[in-house]
Amino acid sequence: MATAPADILIVEDKDALRQMWRLTLERAGYGVVEAADLKQARQALRRQPPTVVLTDLRLPDGTGLEVLRAAKSLDPDVPVVVLTAYGSIEEAVAAMKDGAEDFLQKPVDPDHLLLVLERLVETHRLRRACLLMREEYARRYGFPRIIGDSPAMQQVGQQLQRVAPTETTVLLLGESGTGKELFARAIHHLSHRRQAPFVAINCAAIPETLVENELFGHEKGAFTGADGRQVGKFELARGGTLFLDEIGELPLAVQSKFLRALESRTITRIGGGQEIGVDVRVVAATNRDLAAAVAARTFREDLYYRLAVFTLEIPPLRERREDIPALANYFAEKYGREIRRRRVTLSPAALKALQDYDFPGNIRELENCIERACILCEGTTLEPEDLRLPTATSPAGRRRRS
Question: Which residues contact 267 (CB under 8 A, 6 or more apart)?
């Protein structure tokens, strides 16, 4: 019996054999996706990343090694098992060099196959656990490591890792300063779009009259001052990810056009009449209650449901206090070397003061606090007085508690 829900992609051109494997795996509790050739396998891989790939070596339009490479290009950690009735040492070596976890010769004993899959599912689970928090993985993919070992962060990280390789639109929810753009970048870098652009736009930072132009661009002569064609963010992100921060601030007049772009994957520049195809994956973020905005008729209900296919709520810092020491030490080392040209540490008393504080500005406030302390401190150890945290009696503290 499968120890955890898992999806197995079976790639086999013989219908009877594929169906037999499917029945065997479904009886063992696995979910199964079928593909009869290389083309279908590639489509299945892009549609829903599997937990394990089980592929025949000989396919009508290619080989199992091509399936293996396609799977590894989308998710380097997915285990792949290659099966063949024409096994050879050379083929086994080639499969293993390309990253196959196992190479089995047909006919395969069902019980042996289930044992192999059980081991690989557990291997996949361990590889994926805490992936975003691993420094070496962040270095490999070139994005800042998400720091945090708290249960809340572990849960968010695991959900993010499952949705990232898909094409699903993601809505990130969380207070200001929780690092929503960092999570959006992680989604992009863990997807098959990571080689294409990541384009970010802050809807709250752009004047309402210019938002449509920023998103869709304009043609020459579209309005006074339009001396040439301008490409919008949708086109700049073609093939990659478009991140819209503060999506709740998107003007109502632009929301219908944005919804149409999401659904049709086409845009029309201002002043233009031609529809332009845009293959982008959209990730949006907000610190507003969009459901309340829908009720207040300031946000379109249909757009809300189109964006909220998969929601991720980033916990505020006060709900993950156990992560504060790791974050504070990371910022202390960073700004110590940048500002003081030496290693800066935090005293136990300083760490306790940080953990006792609520941080309404979340990680952004914590980072600012540590940077300021690195400027003000006399030595190389930050003390509570260097942090200058607001107190209940300070003006800033009273404002935060009012």
Answer: 215, 216, 217, 232, 234, 235, 261, 275, 276, 278
